[in-house]
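Internal tracking record. Fields below are filled automatically when a chain is submitted to the structure queue. Please do not edit lines marked as system-generated. If the sequence contains nonstandard residues, flag them in the REMARKS field before resubmitting.
Queue: standard
Priority: normal
Entity type: single polypeptide chain
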Amino acid sequence: MSDLMEYIKTQRADIRCFRNQEWTVLGMIGISLFFLSQVEALHFQITAIGIGIATCAVGIFISVKHWAILFAKTKIINKCQEKLGIKVEYFESRLKVKGMIIVHYFLIIGVLSALLMWLLLSKIWISVPYKIWISVGTGILIAIHSIPAYSISRWWAEEKRKETDVVIIPPVV
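SYSTEM-GENERATED OUTPUT FOLLOWS
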């Protein structure tokens, strides 16, 4: 029985490792935003925005992959708990946290894109109302992609969850 408990602990440690990776990505985005607030030169600001957008894109891919792995690890843990006779009821939320992390990445990309457009348009002579409309429009167009991205990531994770029907559990000695 202790081998099975150790196996459950290993699976839970993997889940915590994934969460730490996602927090690291969010921290990197925060660092790029801090850097953006500290520099005044246009090329450094554009670089900071580019790093922030690229980090958000990487974060989206990491979150989608971790969502599928989370389903598989949770299924393994549930099977092990059944084998040990442990009954656990989980609260099932219709709004998935992983999906909301993906939405936040898209919202951050939208804000950074709007800021990038504002900076680029500031070097071109154009009236302020047009700059506002173009910048905000760009940000909204990119951020609105979070809705289908959330739905697609949920669908993809559900498909991956269905693929993990075979669960390997170590034998109890």
